[in-house]
Amino acid sequence: MSPETLTSRQREVLKFIAQFIDKNKYPPTRSELAKHFGFRSPNAAEAHLRALEKKAVIGIERGAARGITLLPLAADELPASANTPLPLVGRVAAGSPILAQENIEDDYRVDPALFPRKPHYLLRVEGMSMKDAGILHGDLLAVHRTPEAGNGQIVVARVEDEVTVKRFQRDGFRVRLMPENRRFRPIEVDLRHQEFAIEGLGVGVIRPQL
Question: Can 31 be counted among the known catalytic residues?
Fold first, then answer.
């Protein structure tokens, strides 16, 4: 999502929502939004919320007074000081979206300026297949959400129903997901016959204190 996607007013509304959640631990109501921005009625606030929902930066639970949730793409539109904690994804259930609620263990507050690209979520690493790249079992891999990657980049990839972290190589219809540990074999994928998707790029590692 490019910075031009939101209007300046929409970006102000999104920033207010993020700061309100950060301060109060719950989202604002339409009336609170209307009061803050001087709208004549909550209906004007609702119009802005619908626009933000359409642009995939917030979710709205129908019928709930405080049913606003920030989606991962909101991080691209917010200054670092207004960023909400990143969702920490644990074991990914087979076939489920990586950010499905059942996969999220916790939220983790981290400064996005620490990474070369803004992370959208953290993924708890299982196993030692990437140890020679400095990614160890139990580490938290910061992931920038994107469906595209270049050869040699470390990716979070989905092969059929399984999610894995490997180094990406592609040659035509053939993809090789390369481990960084000689004890592990590459994963070979034929794009003509197997389901494959890139979930994101690894942009950094956090090693939790033991």
Answer: no
Domain holding 17: CATH number? Answer: 1.10.10.10
* CATH number for the domain harbouring residue 185: 2.10.109.10
Alpha-carbon separation of residue 166 from 100, 112, 169, 195 (angstroms): 22, 22, 9, 16
Q: Are 184 and 129 in contact (CB under 8 A)?
A: yes
Which position has the token pair 């389901």?
195
Instruction: Indicate the number of domains in the chain.
Output: 2
Active-site residue, from 2, 25, 41, 166: 166
- Domain range holding 73? 3-81
Instruction: Note the pTM of the prediction, 2 decimals.
Output: 0.64
Closest Cα to residue 131, out of 182, 90, 176, 91?
182
Q: Is residue 187 domain-shared with residue 121, that is, in the same domain?
A: yes
81, 99, 124 - which closes a domain:
81
Residues 61 and 13 both lie in one domain: yes
User: Per-residue pLDDT for the chain (210 aa), expressed as one digit of tens each?
Assistant: 444 478 889 999 999 998 888 788 889 999 999 999 999 889 999 999 999 999 888 989 888 888 898 887 777 777 655 555 788 888 765 555 676 666 888 888 787 778 888 888 899 998 999 999 999 998 999 999 889 999 999 999 999 888 999 999 999 999 999 999 999 999 999 999 999 999 999 999 998 865
Catalytic residue among 2, 31, 81, 129: 129
Active site residue 166: yes
